[in-house]
Design brief:
The protein has 8 helices and 11 strands. The protein is of the alpha+beta class. It is flat and about 85 Å long. The relative contact order is 0.10.
């Protein structure tokens, strides 16, 4: 049972924010973000407290012979609902990841498996693009490189919308595919892989980048066959010297625009590295069934001969391969991962 005095403090904070926003005082953007985070929590608190009040009223009616039967029915109904309401309230009170509401930087690259891995990486890109469209998110390609066979050598995209990082962060890791390649004449099943990284987009206030820590090289952008896309040195390679992180950008014809995009990606990677370092320092044993987001961790297998997708972190298997790759059934996997993550975190605070 959640202490009622704690619930009261949350409601009082919410009402204070509401009053401040109505008066137009303070940092409205910051107040608005906190207000939006607390609103669903306060909704659960008010519903829970109303149920407790109704329960008290019904129990007081037990002494009235004419109202006793009605009161008993009312008490039974409320007591049956209370455990579910308490669970919903505890979920609402779980600490939020500060990055959950942010847009995400999605990176996909082929792993082991050569051309087949690049083709699978392209399948994953289409899956996420369709999933984003279905959820009303925007999917902006920042950087992409394709092979001559239509495989994806690298993708960096920005995904923006409600709850983007909160949901897509569970996609980080190694995705494995088992299928017969179109180029395979013997009909043998091959196994290949692609890596997916989902980073919260960082704001300039999150990561301060000192210009003296950067080495910026410019070069001529090149296309798929090695041909020069244009005749000016518009492509940009930025190396963050302290960490060794390298970001390249050549999609835009303007060197200035390529530099701005490269810095956005660099900022996201530095922010993600800092988040992971902080999490590691807080709890080295954080790794659980949901995983830590370790890029070397195999998280899911897409088996074409059997038409199934298996997420190894939660032992979930769906025989809906086509619908998952269409982006339709991906929500079923993500919802299960979120539920498992919530259950783990509830157990930690119990």
């Amino acid at each position: 049972m959640v202490p009622l005095d704690r619930l009261q403090r949350i409601v009082e904070r919410f009402e204070y924010l509401e009053a401040q926003m109505a008066q137009g005082g303070g940092d409205l953007a910051r107040l608005g973000r906190e207000y939006a985070e607390l609103r669903p929590v306060v909704g659960e608190i008010r519903a829970y407290r109303q149920a407790l009040d109704d329960l008290g009223t019904a129990r007081a009616m037990l002494d009235d012979p004419e109202m006793r039967a009605l009161a008993e029915d009312e008490i039974a109904g409320i007591e049956a609902r209370l455990p579910e309401m308490e669970h919903a309230l505890r979920l609402a009170l779980l600490p939020k990841d500060a990055a959950d509401a942010r847009p995400a930087i999605l990176e996909i690259r082929p792993g082991t498996g050569g051309d087949e891995a690049a083709l699978f990486a392209a399948d994953l890109m289409r899956m996420y693009a369709r999933h984003a469209e279905a959820r009303g998110w925007s999917f902006e390609v920042i950087e992409e490189q394709w092979s001559e066979l239509g495989g994806l050598r690298e993708l960096v995209a920005r995904v923006k919308g409600e709850g983007v990082f909160a949901r897509l962060k569970f996609e980080s890791g190694v995705h494995r595919v088992q299928r017969v390649p179109e180029t395979e004449s013997g009909g043998r099943i091959h196994t290949s892989a692609a890596t997916v990284a989902v980073l919260p987009e960082a704001e300039e206030v999150d990561v301060q980048i000192d210009e003296k820590d950067l080495r910026i090289d410019t070069y001529r952008a090149q296309g798929a066959g090695g041909q020069h896309v244009n005749t000016t040195d518009s492509a940009v390679r930025i190396t963050h010297i302290p960490t060794g992180i390298v970001v390249q950008q050549q999609d835009e014809k303007s060197q200035h625009k390529n530099r701005a995009k490269a810095l956005k990606i660099l900022r996201a990677r530095l922010y993600d590295a800092e988040r992971e370092a902080q999490e590691s320092a807080r709890a080295e044993d954080r790794r659980s069934q949901v995983g830590s987001g370790d890029r070397s961790e195999r998280i899911r297998t897409y088996n074409f001969p059997q038409g199934r997708v298996s997420d190894h972190r939660i032992n979930l298997t769906l025989h809906k391969l086509d619908r998952v790759l269409e982006g339709e059934a991906l929500d079923e996997i993500i919802d299960a991962l979120i539920a498992e993550d919530q259950a783990r975190r509830l157990a930690e605070v119990a």
